[in-house]
Amino acid sequence: MEYLSFYIVVGYLALLIVLGLVSKFYSRGTSADFFVVSRTVGPVLLLLSVFGTTMTGFALVGSTGKAYTSGIGVYGLMASWAGLMHSVVFFIVGIRLWAIGKKYGYLTQCEFFRERFASPALAYLLFVILVLLVIPYLLVGVISAGKFLQGATIGMFPDLFGLPPLVLPDGTERQHPLHGSIPPEWGGLLICLVVLFYVFVGGLRGAVWANAFQTVVFMVCGVLAFYLISQRLGGFARATEMVAISPFASNRLVREGNMTQLYFLSYGLIPLSVGMFPHLFQHWLTARSAKSFRLTVIGHPVFVMIVWLPCILIGVWGAAYLGPLATGQNPNMILGRMVKELVDSQILSGLVTAGVLAAIMSSLDSQFVCLGTMFTSDIVLRLSRRTYSDEQKIMLGRIFIVAVVAVTYGLSLLLKDVALVFDLGIWCFSGFAGLFPIVFAALYWRRTTKAGAIAATLAVAVSWSILFYRDMLSDKPPGSDELTLFGVLPVTAIFLLSVLAIVVVSLITSPPSANTLRKFFPDERLSRR
Amino acid sequence: MRNLIWIGFWGLFVLHQDFWYWNDATLCFGFLPIGLAWHVGFSLACSLFWMAAMKFAWPEEIEAWAAESTER
Question: Average pLDDT, stretch B36-51?
């Protein structure tokens, strides 16, 4: 029984391998199938794959830890804001980009921006920025998967991964707390290889199918852990009463004192990032028809609730049950500790570990495929003078996917002990959210010009870099935690500068040609009939 | 009808800010703090709102436009 939880994780990873092989069997062998699933994905698969891609490991582990420290307000801050804003972005941006992508055969965002603004320079500038924003996002996934697997396998492999005992100041020896666990570099490698296998053989089809399976896994595991933990605490009502009477935890039941109204409002900008995620753009292109989006738009807020509500409550209950953390302990350990201390079931531990890995891997796979597609389509096919056959395009895609996985894994080895990697997530989202006005203006404001889009891109790059340096790299006054500007998140300044740049510069430069407008605005074409 | 949808969206945006239960620890159903219950209800309302939007403000023309032949 001791290894049962590990066998469950291995079983889950083996199922992903099988899914990859099955997706290969259903592949049509064309580059369109490898990169955009031949644009045949229906409503249910689109909802599951898009949801799995937008939810990262933070949805299970980070949300529980954040609720432990900041209380119930975290649900509004991150979950219901996402439920509202993701759906509106899918509706106003996703459907229109799907239509344009289908009509002109695009595979990447840069292809759209290149032709919408008749500017190769803008396309290359965006290419660099998008790649630089996706890579830290990948690193967070690989490193956190390795660390989570390490925590889940403590004591399982003392012969393979034994660690020397710690010598305490009084000369006595104590067993190393991580003795016998899979080191993060091995865990990260295992996750990278499994993801690489199913996206290498199946392309985006492999990722879409795996995403759908992974979404079901992490939703079911989260709800199951929530139910079992609540029962061990004496039921839902007893668990929350325990929080209400705890001097340490009771302030978690309100938002007052944990966050301000303005701070809460500024979090509404973060979910706009999905409008510029290159990996989500590629998922949108897989839709069979515009109607495939309906279920995604409607179902997304409820799916977010199903994943986040249990984790928020476990985090708040954890504040009362576990009390203050000891020095050096991280709030991200709360979910694991609650499962271990309250349920102590090898089966549940294995399922929760599989659930967390599913949430992480369902984002990693799409990002690997998307970067491979971008290097193939935006660089090689664009700059090369020769024409490539379908087989050659798929081979190029696979070569770049392997290269991206190798670079990501190499960087994860270098940065696995750098604490700031885990704070990069919000900065990646802030960068993508800052770029949102560009895609919105490109789709809805005819007066947007090439110069305006370039100015907004540069405004985001410069403001993001300055604020990132101030928050992450420069010395901060003691006691200051997260950077805020006048009480709001830095994304507010980045977003407003982006809007200002695109509006002002577009208005003082000459408008795009009538041909461009006819090409990209459906109503322009329809009104001329 | 599409204007109504946008009025609805901004209405939801304001409701999400939840000024009224900001410092209220009353429990709903015996276990759900009212501020959290508000936002859980909000998530369900979002889905219902989008269900209505899909029915009354669906961009029918986009499908036809995407299917039109192109120079490519």
Answer: 92
